[in-house]
């Protein structure tokens, strides 16, 4: 009886040891990412997992929700926000690893329609006003929504179009409103409508970046990732040329140098 | 904790939506509940299951399919366009339709239970007295099933007030038209305006608690009078 118990103990010790040593080699990390960055992030993580052997569990959603969750113990090691404000606020509240904040992508905005009778090439479709609804992300919550409002201001069309606005809670919902054809036009993230550098459905006006302030998206290493080799490796990978190529392929720009950029308000 | 003008708009809109939906659901839900309570048809199972679907489905699923169905290429959308009404998403009436689906089981099931609890006897008695079907309904069924109708109205109203996922999907967050309280709370949280979020959210908790407390008190009173519905 006794020897059986000893065997069992030995076996479980061995099992535990292999488990622990596996963990030391390949970690599982949790990463929260803004929903506009879904497509490129999936590809980045796929390549990262192949190279590093680590596993990345991705959560996509609204940055404000992640902000609240991180403050209340959500197990994320890395946050890729849709803006600069939330990583900065987390940094100031002491939830991040010092000096880890950086801009990983600069977003581009597109005015998009899936309808064949809407040939979107420039702002004329907006100024003519012959559309039922104009979808945009809530400017209070989403930087893409704020940028859309800036575009409308620049075109002096904010007041004339306002009665036709429908606001998504984030850019993913705005895409849904436009993609289902419920809104004739929508301001979406260019990354959402690009496949291999081509607009996959409908037509779009890629808005020149002088029409709005740059949509800088910052990432940050969270306190929970401080001692994680995998989290640090992922951040190094996001800054690498290999990842930048993916990010650019989805219509984003990448910052010229790694300097942290100030938030303009 | 004070409410901003936008918060007040959202509260007013939510109450208007819940009132409209409750009244319409009592009209639509009663015949369905009546049929479900009385029928011996094979269809009772499938229809009962469809009515109960929102109990188990995530509201976002319901909202997403409604967005597709009410869109320009969807079944409902084609129908409303042919009537010259345009499409329904992003309108008050779009929310009304969404909420009717969403709150349906909360109205149909209490009424169905109440009618089932009446049993055959009173209806047979009414028939021997030569009461027509409408007469029977208004003078026999309605008074006997009244607690069920009241429960249905309260639950339908409260559940519509608490609706979130469906409105998020088909609402479009238009002030005064589709931005209800639950969405306004979500907006506050997302914008890190936790004080305003708390003000509205606490209001919501208190409202729900009072509604349920009142409902259970009412049901206990009915039970003690020997008028308990639904076994």
Automatic annotation (TrEMBL), chain B:
The keyword Membrane applies. The chain crosses the membrane at residues 12-37, 49-70, 90-108, 194-218. GO terms for molecular function: molybdate ion transmembrane transporter activity. InterPro entries: MetI-like (IPR000515), MetI-like_sf (IPR035906), ModB_ABC (IPR011867). Residues 11-217 form the ABC transmembrane type-1 domain. The keyword tRNA-binding does not apply. GO terms for cellular component: plasma membrane. Keywords: Cell inner membrane, Cell membrane, Membrane, Molybdenum, Transmembrane, Transmembrane helix, Transport. It is found in: Cell inner membrane; Cell membrane. It holds the Pfam family BPD_transp_1. It is a multi-pass membrane protein. Belongs to the binding-protein-dependent transport system permease family. CysTW subfamily. Part of the binding-protein-dependent transport system for molybdenum; probably responsible for the translocation of the substrate across the membrane. This is Molybdenum transport system permease.
């Amino acid at each position: 009886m006794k020897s059986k118990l000893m065997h069992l103990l030995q076996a479980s010790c061995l099992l535990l040891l292999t488990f622990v040593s596996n963990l030391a080699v390949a970690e599982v990390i949790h990463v929260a990412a803004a929903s506009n960055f879904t497509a490129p992030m999936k590809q980045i993580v796929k390549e990262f997992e192949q190279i590093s052997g680590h596993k990345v569990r991705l959560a996509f959603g609204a940055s404000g929700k992640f902000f609240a969750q991180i403050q209340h113990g959500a197990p994320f090691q890395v946050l890729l926000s849709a803006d600069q404000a939330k990583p900065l606020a987390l940094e100031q509240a002491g939830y991040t690893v010092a000096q880890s904040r950086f801009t990983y992508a600069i977003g581009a905005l597109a005015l998009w329609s899936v309808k064949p009778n809407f040939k979107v090439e420039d702002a004329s479709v907006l100024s003519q006003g012959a559309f039922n609804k104009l979808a945009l992300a809530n400017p209070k919550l989403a930087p893409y929504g704020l940028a859309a409002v800036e575009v409308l201001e620049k075109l002096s069309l904010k007041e004339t179009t306002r009665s036709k606005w429908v606001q998504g809670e984030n850019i993913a919902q705005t895409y849904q409103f436009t993609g289902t054809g419920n809104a004739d036009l929508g301001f979406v993230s260019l990354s959402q409508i690009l496949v291999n550098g081509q607009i996959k459905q409908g037509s779009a006006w890629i808005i020149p970046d002088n029409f709005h302030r740059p949509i800088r998206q910052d990432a940050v290493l969270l306190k929970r990732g401080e001692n994680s080799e995998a989290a640090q490796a992922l951040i190094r990978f996001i800054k690498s040329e290999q990842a930048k190529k993916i990010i650019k392929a989805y219509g984003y720009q990448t910052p010229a140098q790694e300097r942290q950029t100030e938030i303009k308000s | 904790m004070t409410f901003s003008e936008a918060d007040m708009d959202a509260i007013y809109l939510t109450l208007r939506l819940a009132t409209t939906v409750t009244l319409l659901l009592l009209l639509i839900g009663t015949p369905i509940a009546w049929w479900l309570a009385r029928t011996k048809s094979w269809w009772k199972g499938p229809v009962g299951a469809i009515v109960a679907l929102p109990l188990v489905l995530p509201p976002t699923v319901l909202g997403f399919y409604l967005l597709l169905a009410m869109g320009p290429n969807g079944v409902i959308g084609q129908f409303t366009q042919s009537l010259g009404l345009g499409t329904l998403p992003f309108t008050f009436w779009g929310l009304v339709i969404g909420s009717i689906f969403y709150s349906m089981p909360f109205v149909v099931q209490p009424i169905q239970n109440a009618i089932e609890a009446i049993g055959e006897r009173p209806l047979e008695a009414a028939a021997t007295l030569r009461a027509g079907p409408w007469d029977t309904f208004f003078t026999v069924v309605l008074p006997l099933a009244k607690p069920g109708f009241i429960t249905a109205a309260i639950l339908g109203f409260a559940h519509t007030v608490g609706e979130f996922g469906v409105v998020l999907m088909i609402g479009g967050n238009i002030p005064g038209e589709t931005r209800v309280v639950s969405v306004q709370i979500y907006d506050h949280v997302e914008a890190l305006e936790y004080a305003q979020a708390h003000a509205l959210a606490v209001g919501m908790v208190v409202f729900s608690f009072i509604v349920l407390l009142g409902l259970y008190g009412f049901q206990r009173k009915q039970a003690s009078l020997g008028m308990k519905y639904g076994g």
